[in-house]
Specification:
single chain; alpha+beta; four-stranded antiparallel beta sheet
């Protein structure tokens, strides 16, 4: 676990709100000089605390109106079959997130497509072509209540 001090936590909070903030803007908001803020941000990037910077796209404005969560149960739980499944899912652009979960299912996929017809094609042609799927269960999002990738940042106690 990476030890965050209060300044690191504030930097991460600000960048999660707006990743386009320049170092000068960060330093003004933090009441710190440019160089220490620059060095802290670079260290957070180098240490992998900041993994990458992205633009969050409004999916509906680009025609991606259907979001579904698809539970997957595998037939076989060998390392080889699990790796084949993961490799196949990683190549599917419709799958925006994939989680290995516990319980009745092995994986939870977040799938974003244009409409129900495209989801059916995805389910039948892409997922249906994978040899190790035992069963699937789909849940369709009717409305988004909260959608945030920001993590609460607190300084780590040393």
């Amino acid at each position: 676990m990476y030890n965050l001090d209060e300044t690191d936590a504030k930097i991460l909070h600000l960048l999660q709100q707006d990743a386009t903030l320049k170092t000068r803007e960060l330093s003004e908001k933090l009441n710190l000089s440019y160089t220490p803020v620059y060095e802290r941000v670079r260290r957070l990037e180098k240490e992998g605390v900041i993994k990458k910077y992205v633009a969050l796209v409004d999916r509906e404005k680009v025609g991606k109106k259907l979001m579904a969560f698809c539970n997957i149960a595998l037939k076989e739980h060998s390392k080889v079959m699990g790796e084949k499944f993961v490799k196949a899912v990683m190549a599917m652009p419709e799958v925006t997130e994939c989680f290995n979960i516990s319980g009745d299912y092995d994986f939870l996929l977040k799938v974003i497509v244009d409409d129900m017809s495209q989801y059916q094609q995805f389910l039948m042609q892409k997922l249906g072509s994978l040899e190790n799927i035992g069963s699937t269960h789909s849940l369709f999002v009717m409305g988004e209540i909260k959608n945030s990738y920001a993590l609460e940042m607190l300084a780590t106690k040393k």
